[in-house]
Amino acid sequence: MPYTTILAEKRGQVGLITLNRPEAMNALNFTLTRELMDALAEFDRDDSVGAMVVTGNQKAFAAGADIKEMADKTVVEMHDRDPIANFGRIRTIRKPVIAAVSGWALGGGCEIAMSCDMIVASETAKFGQPEITIGVMPGAGGTQRLTRAVGKAIAMEMTLNNRTLTADEALRHGLVNRVVAAETYLDEALKLAQEIAARAPLAVRSVKKMVNQADERFLGDALEEEKKEFYNLFATEDQKEGMRAFAEKRKAEWKGK
Ligand code: CO8
Question: Ligand 1 in contact with 98 (CB < 6 A)?
Answer without folding.
Answer: no
